[in-house]
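Could you join me in thinking about how sequence relates to backbone shape in a protein? Would you write everything just below, so we can both look at the same thing?
***
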Amino acid sequence: MNIAEKPSHFVAPDLIARFSKIVGEKNAITDKAAQAPYLIEQRDMYPAHSAVVLRPGSTAEVAEIVKLANETRTAIVPQGGNTGLVGGQTPHHGEVVLSLNRMDRVREIDPTSNTMTAESGLTLAKARAAAEAVDRLYPLLLPSEGSCTIGGNLSTNAGGTQALAYGIARNQALGLEVVLADGRVLNNLNKLKKDNTGYDLKNLFIGAEGTLGIITAAVLRLMPRPRSVETAYIAVASPEAALDLLGLATEHSGGGVTSFEIMKRIGIDMVLTHMHGCRDPMAERHEWYVLIEMSSQSRSGLRDVMEGFLAEGLERGLVLDAAIADSVDQAKNFWRIRELFADAQKVEGGSIKHDVSVPVAAVPQFLHEAGEAVIRVLPGARPTPFGHLGDGNIHYNISQPKGADKAAFMARYHDVNEAVYEVVLRLGGSISAEHGIGVQKREKLPMVKDPVAYDLMRTLKRTLDPNGILNPGKVL
């Protein structure tokens, strides 16, 4: 079958009944109001509908559903916490939704081996809490941790605010359990740090957005918990100064920089104006800010490291002002400002968003050139960039001009995308850093991907899902 073709998404009543029997009537949702949490995604950009939302409670039930779907050529959209931002997790053409949020157990936690075996519907917050309960750290951290799930994190290869120190979701997985398109179960749940027995199959499914198989469980890598953490909110003169400051922080901390986020003042103003419970950490306004977190296995001495780093930054003119958190609550306030950027932009009207990455050294150039490019295309638009300077991942969001018509602004989405992507690609970057491809970037992918790599992706899809039932129309 040509993967560009789509299976019929009409699901006959008798087939709905067969699917429902697998999970039980109460876990087969056909009522439209009850389906809403599974259909409406955060940006509300992609209208969705489904004949039935299935909520299996075990890998065996997932396998039975997928086997039936493959036999009947019924399209399935796997879903975790429905927190995706590129339209990859919702049914746009009436597909059956396979929600994994009932599969939320920690099957095993092994602090000696530093591993946790978790089902895919476990939320990130619960995974982190389970690790903390045995004095370990599961280092993936996202603002949506209360809703996003382990399966969704792995399927999109999520990044987050601590990727600088610990890597992205792919780096945290040692083994997977995956239901394949024909209903077979790939059992690759090993806890081994070293396993050279052939191809590393797990990495086929991490970042594949449910198009090659459905992740039902994973063995996750745990870390020692930091014994001390220091957080500082810093005003800097420019993105160039922020980049120099990153090098200085790494040098002072001996590699102990956990997070290094950059924020533009316009976004902070939006947060302080529209979001309750946030306070400006500084009396004076500046154009650019950095939020830095350092961590250490030592119980003392990290505060001195942070203070020494900031003192040298002030002396070298890299730091204009700084506040070190004196309590957990103050650190949370610093982070709350950063985490509410996207929510505050919604209140300001239309927002054209980009999740891009460039080499870390090129971030200042990207910020300047992308800003100029956007204003050329759309005078009056308000670039509101923020994100992970430490790993080169910037969320380059653009808010509509003040007083502009939202629909007219959003109609320029493609033009603005092209302007930003031209800068990204010229600097050797990626159009998708941590959110995935979904449907939003599907048409752009073959234009930016190496042709041989793209052909291999299509070959994998045809091989592993010959009937095209798994998340059709996403990624490819």
